[in-house]
Design goal:
With 265 residues, the chain is an all-beta fold. The protein is built from no helices and 24 strands. It is 0% helix and 49% strand. The strands form 6 sheets. Strands 11, 12, 14, 16, 17, 19, 22 and 23 form an 8-stranded antiparallel sheet that branches. Strands 2-3-4-8-6 form a 5-stranded antiparallel sheet, with no helix packed on it.
Length: 265
């Protein structure tokens, strides 16, 4: 999963107009001057839930309830939501103020509770078999947030099927680059499905123009999603599959899953 974040330069004084900042035409924050106060709003411009965090480092600014150097607010925003999260005003109107914002978001619902009784289909055609080259706690890259990911080695162009039903909320298929270094991570092609329990299924390293679904599609277990590749942070052609829940500050965490190996339907 790709982390999304934005850091906004320090602005001094109270004279700025209403300003809005967005990432990926999806998650936004606004700051609005109303007299000697600043209002902060978070918004979600897509019909899929996200978890957003706004950190504001301040000088000579207080909230309605406290005086801090840093204010941190995290919200789960459902479809097309827009909410006010913070109001700041000058402590001393005769002194200058400053504020620096850092904004983060990730698809899905914060701390979503995974349905541990669900048995996932293998993410490829039922008449095929592929070697797991890295599983849970894999020493190469399956640590931390991706601790419970599974990598299946497979030739480029192998059909990838949904391991669980869900809605397509994010995808990328325009990249061509890949390599065995984290600097290539931003070039991964992928499909993200939102599951009914608020977790997301991530299918990574797809080939260029290798996505067979569209944003908003509701897909069934076993449905074709696209074709495997070798894009992004990838040392060999393979599919990276994992299930995640969202956390604050653009972070996420994989969860342990069980495959139904007796039947791939």
């Amino acid at each position: 999963m790709i982390k999304r974040w934005l850091s906004v330069a320090v602005l001094s004084g109270m004279s700025f107009p209403t300003q809005a900042y967005c990432i990926d035409d999806w998650a936004c924050f606004e700051k609005i001057k109303r007299g000697k106060t600043i209002e902060y709003w978070l918004s979600n411009d897509k019909p899929y839930p996200i978890t957003s965090t706004l950190d504001v480092d301040t000088r000579n600014l207080k909230s309605e309830n406290s005086i801090k150097d840093t204010y941190s607010e995290t919200r789960v925003l459902h479809a097309l939501a827009r909410v006010k999260i913070l109001t700041l005003s000058a402590i001393d109107a005769n002194r200058s103020v400053s504020n620096h914002e850092s904004f983060y978001w990730t698809p899905g619902i914060k701390n979503a509770k995974h349905n541990d009784s669900y048995r996932y289909a293998l993410p490829y055609a039922k008449n095929q078999s592929f070697t797991v080259v890295q599983g849970f706690n894999g020493g190469y890259s399956h640590q931390g947030a991706s601790r419970y990911a599974v990598d299946f080695a497979m030739p480029i162009g192998t059909p990838i099927h949904a391991a669980r039903e869900g809605q397509v909320i994010d995808l990328q298929e325009n990249h061509r680059r890949g390599g065995a270094h984290r600097r290539y991570a931003k070039y991964a092609n992928f499909v993200t499905l939102l599951h009914e329990d608020g977790t997301t299924g991530e299918y990574y390293h797809l080939q260029h123009k290798g996505v067979a679904v569209a944003l908003g599609d509701h897909v069934q277990r076993g449905q074709l999603l696209g074709y495997s590749g070798n894009t992004g942070f990838s040392s060999l052609p393979h599919l990276h599959f994992a299930v995640y829940f969202a956390k604050s500050h653009g972070k996420y965490q994989s969860v342990p899953i069980t495959f139904n190996t007796n039947s791939n339907k």
